[in-house]
Fold this sequence. Notes:
- Two copies of one chain form a homodimer.
- By secondary structure, the first copy, chain A, is of the alpha/beta class.
- Chain A has twelve helices and 13 strands.
Amino acid sequence: MTSSTGAPSRLHAEQLDAADPLASFRLRFTIPDPTVVYLDGNSLGRLPAATSGRVADVVGDEWGERLIRSWDEGWMDLPLEVGDRLGAALLGASPGQTVVCDNVTVNTFKLLHAALDLRPGRSTIVAHRGEFPTDRYVAAEVARQRGGAVDWLGPLDPGAAAQVDPVTASQVAGALSDDVAVVLLSVVDYRSAAIAEVAGITRAAHDAGALVVWDCSHAAGSIPLDLDGVGADFAVGCSYKYLNGGPGAPAWIWAAGRHHDAMRNPVPGWMGHDDVFAMGAEYVPAAGVRRFLTGTPSAIALAAVDVGVGLLAEAGMEAVRAKSVALTSYAVDLADAWLARHGASLASPRDPAQRGSHVTLRHSEARALTQALTDRGVIPDFRNPDGIRIGLAPLTTRFTDVHDGIASLAALLDALS
Amino acid sequence: MTSSTGAPSRLHAEQLDAADPLASFRLRFTIPDPTVVYLDGNSLGRLPAATSGRVADVVGDEWGERLIRSWDEGWMDLPLEVGDRLGAALLGASPGQTVVCDNVTVNTFKLLHAALDLRPGRSTIVAHRGEFPTDRYVAAEVARQRGGAVDWLGPLDPGAAAQVDPVTASQVAGALSDDVAVVLLSVVDYRSAAIAEVAGITRAAHDAGALVVWDCSHAAGSIPLDLDGVGADFAVGCSYKYLNGGPGAPAWIWAAGRHHDAMRNPVPGWMGHDDVFAMGAEYVPAAGVRRFLTGTPSAIALAAVDVGVGLLAEAGMEAVRAKSVALTSYAVDLADAWLARHGASLASPRDPAQRGSHVTLRHSEARALTQALTDRGVIPDFRNPDGIRIGLAPLTTRFTDVHDGIASLAALLDALS
Lengths: 417, 417
């Protein structure tokens, strides 16, 4: 991968792009400004080319022309239909367990309460101090509402740029007790991309009588998941990252079939009722995961999610994962070659088997560097206090993007030194 | 209004349309099939003509081209900006008290908990048995979560087609006690359109030390509201009815400024944090109503709401109300003239001062009649068990629509008899 001078060459990046079996997927996205090096597809995924037309159809035809009739003509089924397609393509989920609705905050709130309800007599939530903020806020508040507490894993300072080491089954097992009702963890850490031991942690929790809520926001669409296979309980995730569902696209909930009959929605709404338009006196939850619906879902937003899910389904998660590993490994190689000498340290696992689809670098000037890169049309993400997060979306990121982006960062650091 | 034969004439309807000062607003909407008589704008408002372009801009330019940068370039401020415009145009609200987010179910859940938190030592919620289902389900569940109870107003059978009489201050006062923390009521009843005594009920609740959460879903955009003026506490509403925000458009929350410092969000999310990207250890609520944000809001959906709010702001709520009263009065006149003899009875207040912008008729064959009308391109709404609900959206409904729709119903009933 290096030129004759020992420096990684752009030609090599071009060769990697030429050999990329997923290269043609980039053509399925709208990319109005090809000079932008976009390395933040894990914050907001790019716009699929088909989305504009699909949204225009829902707005113009389904809303504008069919009006209220569209609820009967398809909209009512969208949360479960798109959920099933999402579950099959990305989660390893058989049908009837996935629903697209609300956002990750609201869905995590629902699932933590539901898990506590399924474990009466237990009131502790285990979560990680380095968890994505909304998960921590919700966990703390749900524990307060239930008269319980959160048992926090990990180092005291959650502001650090990365929890590099994956959360392990033995780490979680050390926190489990007869009072733990539920463990809330991310499959892929939002800063470091470290992949938690999903199967082992799920087993350890079950052995201790607890349930697990997996936040898959940075995992769905970037690594293959097998929620059915590992015997998971509940999962949640967003659809505006690797799923390319658009800014503020609705989130999803996955719930294992074995919990369906007993699980409760703590925010019961008319769209999760067994008979929506009966409008009866009592709340009777719909069968299965549909009960996690609250109010009226957005038909426009669901259509946009469907387009993004369809592209990932077509590519296949094994191919997506293979390219993701190649992209992040290439980024790590370039960082080693160009950035390490400037004090930029890798804050993601070096072993690709432990790493999702982004790479975080720590540097004392991370904030200013991120801004300077953005000003030059290279767009990574800053993560407080010292992380430059480089998101590599397998359907749209090229090896030349990785090369050019990290070369730009190297040039900035060269100029600083 | 009657022809020389004594029957209401279509010519008269045409004259009313010709004299309608808001008639030109219908041209600001996309109406692909002009043969449809749409009498359900209070379930799903029509598509504003500007919305398609605005949505295409957000999708293509802001998402597709500017990508993640759009959050800094405007998206972060949209929930409050659109909220302020909505509050000023429709709610009688000064700035900083309205935020657009989530849906009515989730927002009502947040507000009931927030109200209970503001009234420690009190655990009763007063609500109405005839309330819209989601409000009842949420009230019952929040009461359960707080170890309290709902004190239900109204007749035992909430399935009846209409609670015709407006909820009065004295009715609510009769349910108030030292244990009542909050009253949850709709300003406009979803079946009968009866307008509750907003000012009097608010005063009565305050006199008893309780707060009020007003559900304005059927009121916002159909009758002028004066939430600041009446000294209201909290309000919630949807934006897919008279606001024409689209299917599943986000809802809104209004919170009186005097409650801002003390109010809590029971579903605390990162977007409601005081410093969103600090991602600190603790949840620190944003100042003011912004704290009611949960997860990432949809930029596309907010833009669509903004278009609908803009049209109502331009028309002005006094003019909207004047036309609404004329439309519903005309519908009542036609129902009296053509339908009463067939057993269709008015299930809305006869006094326009007590009536919102829809008219409900009761008939034993309401379900079949609604279906038969829909098959003929006349679209009202059926409300279980025997209500035909005729929604009259002042910006888009013509007097000729009212005439033609009720004439179609009369023809169906004539054929039945």
